[in-house]
Amino acid sequence: MIFKRVGDGRPYPEHGLSSGDWAALPPRQVRLDELVTTKDTLWLGTLLDEDSTFYGDLFAHVVDWHGELYLEDGLHRALRAALQQRPVLHARVLDHAAHGKRSA
């Protein structure tokens, strides 16, 4: 299994981060087998969207919600890493609980 689980949707509340906000988070390595996807399909339209990490951020976007790591954006990067037999992905990780406390 490549991912911990293949999900369909975001179980966490909206965090409100823009592309620029994500850029402020330092990237770190995340194991693919610890990630839960928020998409079960890689759509070309989404991949080529202006706000996608395909064009902008070099790192995937992951949300830490109740101890689970959800791959919000960067499924294409995660699949590329898996195809290259790399067990880790460089990602920006948002601690949703800590972010919620700061913005409250």
UniProtKB/TrEMBL annotation:
Q: What is this protein called?
A: Arc/MetJ family transcription regulator
Residue numbers spanned by region Disordered: 1-21
Question: Where along the chain is composition biased (Basic and acidic residues)?
Answer: 1-13
Protein origin, superkingdom: Bacteria
Q: Which organism is it from?
A: Nocardioides marinus
InterPro entries per the record? VapB-like_prob (IPR014447)
